[in-house]
Write a structure and sequence with these properties.
Shape: globular
Oligomer: single chain
Strand order of the largest sheet: 1-2-3-4-5
Order of helices and strands: EEEHEHEHH
Distance between the termini: 27 Å
Helix content: 25-40%
Structural class: alpha/beta
Radius of gyration: 15 Å
Strand content: 15-25%
Largest sheet: 5 strands, mixed
Length: 118
């Protein structure tokens, strides 16, 4: 993802679809919290339709949504990548510690505050 920071769009909207992080002409990144229900599945289908020209990343709790992940993988091509949000936040936290950033929150507090506690 070699994009300049000015190319990154936060909370971007395409055809009534909110993309959490959008890198024009390349990537659509969606962040999902909690367990994905039937209305969320419909929203995801719409997101996938409206972002069909981009590589798509979903950050979510894979363990809590394994059936949804398997279902989407079976219906879609390989342009969609799933990233476990808990592991991602752990990596960010560990990276901050390695480069000397003092974190005032524990890993579990960070996940809880961001709505991704698992």
């Amino acid at each position: 993802m070699n994009s300049k920071s000015e190319d990154i769009k936060w909370s971007y909207k395409i055809n009534d679809t909110d993309i959490d992080i959008f890198i024009p002409d390349k990537y659509a990144i969606f962040l999902k919290t909690g367990i994905i229900g039937s209305s969320d599945r419909k929203r995801i289908q719409k997101e996938l339709e409206n972002s069909q020209n981009f590589n798509v990343f979903y950050f979510l709790d894979i363990a809590k949504n394994l059936d949804v992940v398997k279902d989407i993988i079976s219906q879609q091509d390989n342009r969609i990548k799933f990233i476990d949000i808990g592991k991602f936040l752990n990596e960010i936290y560990d990276l901050a510690e390695r480069v000397g950033v003092q974190m005032e929150l524990s890993k579990s507090s960070l996940k809880s505050l961001t709505g991704f506690y698992s």
